[in-house]
Design a protein that fits this description.
It is built from 10 helices and 2 strands; from the N terminus they run αββααααααααα. The chain has helices at 3-7, 52-59, 63-73, 83-101, 106-124, 130-140, 161-174, 179-187, 221-228, 260-304; strands at 16-23, 29-35. A hairpin with a 5-residue loop joins strand 1 (16-23) and strand 2 (29-35). The longest helix has 45 residues, at 260-304. It is elongated.
């Protein structure tokens, strides 16, 4: 970073070091960074939040494993349902993966994560506004390859100017560009939604039923009873017993005594009764039709004469 603009504010923030770890009321890992002696020239921000072993291990992992490892380190176990934990773990994972892609060594990656952790904690726990957090970030980035010897390093002197510019651009696009969104999320309680599902299950029919249908052909009980199941046999009609005092009428089969000639005679008589009138009507209509035609022919002859 340019030392000319930073030398004017060199007396603003003191260098952070000697971090101590603990747990907050939610059981998460919390890192507190104590103030160092301003005259301590050996103070660095590397390995304050992530230890050297943790940083080296993270450099060997893929992004899914990095997320899992950071979740274990910072006790972020409910990230699948808690939006605040999910965003926190996502930001930490993105920062580590970005540092790995930039080819940072363990010291540089740990220093980058310390800066990212402190700035994000200012939003999450301290609810610091954007201007004050930018001042914090500016104070941390001071002293990287300064042009003037009186500009004291804030603990990131193991970065080059090009790396510092890349870090500033990354933090700007990942944190400060979405600062209002992070502020809103960490100052509002997440609404809890209870989602339930009603599941209807049809159990297998009793084994006492004959030939139960296979499971893949199963249908609802009412559909089976209405369209598939064999209906019960119709009970035979009950014989009516004659009342007391009524004479019993013997069952007589009148057709047993009929011969073929008798049946033919009955059919002919019925046919004459049903078709006799029809035959007479048809003959009368034919005669009437014939008379009309003869009259027309006679008229034609008279006209011709």
């Amino acid at each position: 970073m340019a030392a000319k603009s930073q030398s004017k504010s060199s007396s603003g923030k003191s260098t952070r070091s000697n971090a101590s770890t603990g747990k907050d009321i939610k059981g998460k890992k919390k890192v507190t960074v104590e103030e160092d002696d301003p005259d301590d020239e050996t103070a660095v921000l590397a390995f304050k939040v992530l230890s050297e072993d943790q940083t080296k291990k993270l450099l060997t992992l893929e992004v899914e494993d990095i997320q899992k490892e950071l979740g274990d380190i910072f006790k972020l176990k409910n990230y699948s349902t808690d939006l605040q934990e999910a965003s926190t773990l996502d930001y930490y994972t993105g920062a580590v993966w970005w540092g790995k892609e930039q080819g940072l060594n363990p010291q540089q990656l740990s220093g980058l994560f310390t800066v990212v952790y402190n700035l994000f904690d200012n939003v999450k726990e301290q609810h610091m506004n954007k201007v004050d957090n930018l001042k914090e970030f500016k104070a941390v980035m001071m002293g990287i390859e300064p042009e003037y010897p009186d500009v004291k390093s804030a603990g990131l002197d193991f970065f080059s100017v090009a790396q510092a510019r890349a870090i500033a651009l990354y933090i700007h696009t990942s944190l400060f560009q979405h600062y209002n969104l992070y502020q809103f999320m960490f100052t509002h309680t997440q609404a809890e939604e209870i989602i339930g599902t009603d599941l209807s299950i049809e159990v297998a029919k009793p084994s006492t039923l004959p030939f139960p249908p296979p499971l893949h052909e199963g249908v609802q009980d009412d559909m089976y009873a209405s369209f598939i199941a064999t209906p019960p046999p119709t009970p035979p009609p009950a014989e009516e017993k004659p009342k007391e005092g009524e004479p019993t009428v013997p069952d007589i089969d009148a057709f047993n005594d009929l011969t073929v000639d008798d049946v033919r005679e009955v059919i002919e008589s019925v046919a004459k009764e049903m078709l006799g009138g029809l035959q007479n009507d048809l003959a009368a209509k034919l005669r009437e039709k014939e008379n009309n035609i003869i009259q027309r022919i006679n008229k034609i002859h008279k006209v011709a004469e």
